[in-house]
Amino acid sequence: MDKEQNQNDDELYQSYLKESMQDYEKSHKGTEKSQKKLVKAGRNHALQTNIMISLAVLLLIVPVLTLSSYLYYAIGGKANHLIDLATKTIYVTEPNMSLEEMELEEDIGFFTMNIYFDVFKRIGREDYKAGEYSVRFALDKPNFPERDMKFEKLSPDITGMESSMLYHPDGPHGKMVYSDWDILEHLPDGTVAEIYLSLNQLLKPDELEKQLGNHVQVRWAAVDTGLENKNLYEAGYSVSPIGYPLQVDTTTWSPFNGREKTNEEVFLDILKFLSNDEKKAAKISRAKTLALKERIPYIEEHGIQVYGAVVTGPTPELRKLKDNQLIKIMKVGEVKLWNWK
Amino acid sequence: MELEMNNKNKGKQRKLPTISGLLSFLIALIALAGVNVALIIDIDDFPKMFLVNLPIAGFFLGLFGLLTVRRSRLYAFWGIGISLFILVFTFLMIGLSWAAINPKP
After folding, report:
1. Touching check for A76 and chain B: CB below 8 Å?
2. Residue A282 in contact with residue A68, Cβ under 8 Å?
3. Which value, to the nearest 10 degrees, does the dihedral of the CA atoms of residues A80, A81, A87, A93 take?
4. Do A83 and B75 touch (CB under 8 A)?
5. Pairing relation of β-strands A112-123 and A105-108?
């Protein structure tokens, strides 16, 4: 009896064990399969995550750099300061040149800024586009500007007193320079011209305007700053003329708009503004140095006295200036068809 | 057996929120790629799709992903982060170039 029961139990146990083993095998097989699947899925997921995060980091580089550059130029008004510096330098170092501040374009790259603007010359009664400027700033340091001048007269990239067309009466340069009166003589009457007058003596700007009469317009006056009459050795600097427009410029966003200050006051303000960043201003201008630390005190002490000027008007009226005893040297700039209305 | 069941259930639970986060991240990446292209080739037109529409979609999808997912919120966080960055980028760039750099009346 016992034996029979034992045998039954044993059989039951064996069959139970067999079933369990089959179950185990079945379930074990399944786990291995799903584990493989899981590992594969995990590996794919990790790869996908890696790719997406790497892509995100790479794609963030350009926008982050762009935004940082904009913040760099915007915070503290750095871009506006540099634009001011460039435009004001043109007004005081380039004779008879103005620009349209409203048309100035800027382009900000990775910690660089390009500014583009057109410069104009008044010849007769109209403004003519004289050329295009492009100044590139790396951070806040300007490179030498690229100039694309439209007029026939080529202007050197770097000027000094010897290569400018305005000469100081006591200066070392201009002694061997001949006036261009014969050019004016040969020009037809129906033209207007821009001429560069170098005087025999220093004059107050309003006195100069009075002396030249109402039929011509004095555009820009070169101011004596105590360095123009010296040679390079005495002055210690190679300087070029600085000056300012004598006419009030109401039509543009010019600093010389005559609303709050006279042109003389604005001129001195600009010189002081430029003296804070003199090296940058000198690089933008065609002058080798501006030497403002010496020139400003001289102007403040002696007042504004001019030794040369850019004058425009009808050619017949300009010819009459030949008899004017004040004028030592006259050089012709640009000539245009009649527009003197 | 129980373990297997649990795994299956968890797998099912995980899928939905992952799709939301994944979509958010993908949309943010597409928007970011668009911003890159616009910046590099210097397009004059305002790419509103990449600068505004896609980041807003990515942001809300990411939020949805955050709310429903229990475990992996990684994609949702990235999606929200990038979308927010593009929106802040757009806002700051417009503000800075309008008011702080060479302003014109």
Report:
1. no
2. no
3. 180
4. no
5. antiparallel
Other Cβ atoms within 10 Å of A170 Cβ, number? 13
How far is A271 from chain B, CA to nearest CA, in Å? 22
- Return the amino acid letter for A180: D
Q: Say whether A79 and B92 touch across the interface (CB within 8 A).
A: no
Q: Which of B32, B97, B104 faces A59 most closely, judged by CB atoms? A: B32
CA–CA distances in Å: residue A238 to residues A89, A91, A293: 17, 20, 14
pLDDT value of residue A161: 67
pLDDT tens, residue by residue, A16-74: 899 888 887 776 666 778 888 888 988 988 898 899 999 999 999 999 999 999 999 99
Low-confidence ranges of chain B (pLDDT < 70): 1-18, 68-71
Q: Distance between CA A198 and CA A201 in Å, rounded?
A: 9
Q: How far is A127 from chain B (nearest CA, A)?
A: 22
CB neighbours of residue A150 within 10 Å = 13
* Average pLDDT of the residues in A192-212: 92
pLDDT tens sequence across A60-88: 999 999 999 999 999 999 999 999 999 99
Residue of B nearest to A31 (CA): B4
CB contact at 8 A, A341 and A130:
no
Token pair belonging to B87: 């929106």
Cβ partners under 8 Å of residue A233, min gap 6: none
* pLDDT-derived band at A269, boundaries 50, 70, 90: very high
> What distance in Å separates the CA atoms of residue A114 and residue A234, rounded to the nearest whole number?
38
Q: Please state the pTM of the whole predicted model.
A: 0.82
Place of tokens 């700053």: A225
- Residues of B with Cβ-Cβ distance to A252 under 8 angstroms: none
Helix (H, G, I), strand (E, B) or coil at A201: strand
pLDDT by residue (tens digit) across B82-91? 999 999 999 9
Query: Residue A184: helix, strand or coil by DSSP?
Result: helix
